[in-house]
Task: inverse folding
């Protein structure tokens, strides 16, 4: 056997012969997963970052973090390891992995660094990584839809109760109308932002600030489409447009805020606290809502008030919201506060739903802990 091998537990790893053996019997591993194991064993006891895996093992092959997750799962499977009580490969949340078993080099040689000669991508591995990444993309986008829908339902319930408290208004009808409308718009917005953020993860293994761009792009597309369809529908059915209801500019700002919240959650050391992540997203949303109001934009309550004022026969009124702030009707203070609260709730719900979905997908086995 060539020099530069390693012994640990019942295994012998020989980088020169490109083999892993257990009790003398070969253990099947494809070339890239074997390189990952060599890198871990060579650095026994030391942290191996996920960036180092991507640079040295997947050199020249664009993959997502899911490829590394699948690789470590396969290595643990072949070694008979358990992620919750590791004997060989320990996850260091947020940062990477560490080989924790005792390693004995033999022949007093040091193995070559894996990846010095680029390994051709295994077709089955690439297909599996792409399939897993696509499934992740769909599920994360769907989580955004659910989170946005939940935020919309909550806002619609509050505004519906306010409207229903006015004399001469059917309480059940008011609640149903606003809950359904707000829930639908929130779900569409959440889907746009969720798929935008997920696209940043899908397109590159190191999304970082790209999540802000993805969220902003998704919010812009959905916001622009909703405004276009809404104004066209009112013009066709009623012969007049409701005016400057919420649209693409608001979608860009609130989507970027949600993307920022998702980014901050991913940067949290260790396994991210759901409470901290949702709090960070809520604060980012709060800031975006204040900015939207300062720029003259409107979110849900502002758009509803604009619709009511644009159609004199409308029975919709949010005057009681203004009364809470000492205003006669729905004034600038009400517009600012409701925009801030709506944006905060939306971002918190979308990011929270995406974090829960990511945890279910990863099973707590991802190095970034997000």
Result:
């Amino acid at each position: 056997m060539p020099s530069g091998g390693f012994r640990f537990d019942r295994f012998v790893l020989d980088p020169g012969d490109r083999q892993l053996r257990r009790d003398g019997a070969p253990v099947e591993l494809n070339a890239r997963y074997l390189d990952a194991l060599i890198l871990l064993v060579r650095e026994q006891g030391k942290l191996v970052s996920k960036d180092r895996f991507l640079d040295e093992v997947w050199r020249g092959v664009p993959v997502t973090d899911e490829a590394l997750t699948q690789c470590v799962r396969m290595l643990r499977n072949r070694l008979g390891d358990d992620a919750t009580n590791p004997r060989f490969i320990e996850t260091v949340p947020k940062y990477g992995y560490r080989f924790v078993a005792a390693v004995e080099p033999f022949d007093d040689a040091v193995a070559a660094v894996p990846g010095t000669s680029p390994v051709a991508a295994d077709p089955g591995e690439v297909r599996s990584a792409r399939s897993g990444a696509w499934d992740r993309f769909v599920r994360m986008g769907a989580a955004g839809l659910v989170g946005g829908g939940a935020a919309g339902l909550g806002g619609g319930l509050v505004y519906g109760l306010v409207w229903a408290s006015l004399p001469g208004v059917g309480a059940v009808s008011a609640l149903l109308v606003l809950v359904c409308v707000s829930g639908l718009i929130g779900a569409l917005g959440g889907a746009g932002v969720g798929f935008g953020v997920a696209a940043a993860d899908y397109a590159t293994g190191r999304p970082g600030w790209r999540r802000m761009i993805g969220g902003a792009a998704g919010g812009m597309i959905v916001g622009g489409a909703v405004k276009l369809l809404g104004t066209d529908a009112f013009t066709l059915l009623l012969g007049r447009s409701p005016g400057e209801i919420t649209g693409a500019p608001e979608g860009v700002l609130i989507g970027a805020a949600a993307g920022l919240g998702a980014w901050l959650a991913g940067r949290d050391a260790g396994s991210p606290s759901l409470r901290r992540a949702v709090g960070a997203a809520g604060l980012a949303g709060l800031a975006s809502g204040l900015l939207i109001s300062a720029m003259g934009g409107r979110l849900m309550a502002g758009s509803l008030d604009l619709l009511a004022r644009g159609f004199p026969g409308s029975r919709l009124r949010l005057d009681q919201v203004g009364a809470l702030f000492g205003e006669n009707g729905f004034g600038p203070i009400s517009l600012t506060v409701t925009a801030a609260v709506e944006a905060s709730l939306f971002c918190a719900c979308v990011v929270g739903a995406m974090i829960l979905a990511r945890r279910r997908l990863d099973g707590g086995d991802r190095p970034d802990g997000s």
